[in-house]
C-alpha cells in the first residue's frame, strides 16, 4: 500500500521488544512514516535500527530528549516502562507531540490524569496501545452484541490473559520489577481483560469491584497472577470475572453471555492469524429432549483484513493527528476516556487486593 503525500512522522522513544512490532506497523500504515528512533545511547538506537531493517533515512538519537526536540516529529510512540510514562508522555505533550502510549498507561489514575491533562492543554491526541480494539473483528462483534433479537441483554462476561514464563523472566524482566512495572500481571495482561469487559459493557463502569482471594505476588510485592469479579446493579444488572497471570499457559479468552445468545473467542488480544480472525456466535441454543445434546452449534463468524491490527491502530491514530495538524481539528476524547476508565477499574482491583480482597465501590 502506497504512502500518502504527507504522512504523520513518528518518533519512537525506547527500544523495547514491543517497539519492533509497532515500528513495523508504522512502516505499513499508508498515512504514517517512521522518522526517528531514540534510545539511551546512540549505539542502542543504531543496533535497534539495524536489527529491524529500518530505512537509512530514519534519524538515530542517543537520547529521548533529542527525539522530542526534533521539530519534524509529529507524534511519538512511548514503549518505556510504566514508571517512566508520566515523565516522558507529559514532556512529549508539552513539546506538542501527539502521544501513542504503551499500556498500562500509568501506575495509577492520578498519574494518568496528569498525562491526559498535559495532552488536553497542549491540544495533542492521546491513545494507548491496545491494538485489538482496532481490529475489524471487534467492530463485527459489537454489531452482533447490539442486536437485541440475536444476543439480547448482556448478562455475564469472562476474560483471561495469561502466559507461562521462564525463571529468567521472573528474575530479570521489567514486568516483575517494582521500580519499573510495579503492576506486574495486572498491568500487563489484566489491562486487556479489564478493557475487554468494559468494552462489552459499553464502558459503563461496574458498581462494585472485588478481587478474588487467590492473588500471587513475588517477594517484591509485584502481582504475578490475580483475578477479580465485577458487578453492575440496577435494571442493567450483570456480572463479570477475569483472570490474568504470568504463571499459566497462554490464553486470551473472551466469553460474553446475553439473554438470547452468546459469543466466544480464544484469541481476542492477538489473533491466531494476521490476515483473518473469527469468533463463535450462537443465538437461541437449547438442549434437546432428554438433554442428550443441543439443537444448535455455534456459527464461526470470520473477518478478513488487509493490514495487521497494530497497523490499523497506527493508521487511526495518524488520521486523528492529521485532522488536528492540517484541519485545525481537536483531539478525539474517545481514546483518553477509554484509557481513563480502564485505569480507574485497574486501580480498584489493586486496592481490593491490598485490602485483603474487600469489595471496592466505584
Automatic annotation (TrEMBL):
Superkingdom, natural source: Eukaryota
Residues covered by the GFO/IDH/MocA-like oxidoreductase domain: 140-263
Residues in the signal sequence: none
Ranges for domain Gfo/Idh/MocA-like oxidoreductase N-terminal: 8-127
MF terms in GO: nucleotide binding
Gene3D superfamilies registered for this protein in UniProt: Dihydrodipicolinate Reductase, domain 2 (3.30.360.10), NAD(P)-binding Rossmann-like Domain (3.40.50.720)
Similarity comment: Belongs to the Gfo/Idh/MocA family.
Protein name, UniProt field: Gfo/Idh/MocA-like oxidoreductase N-terminal domain-containing protein
Species of origin: Nelumbo nucifera (Sacred lotus)
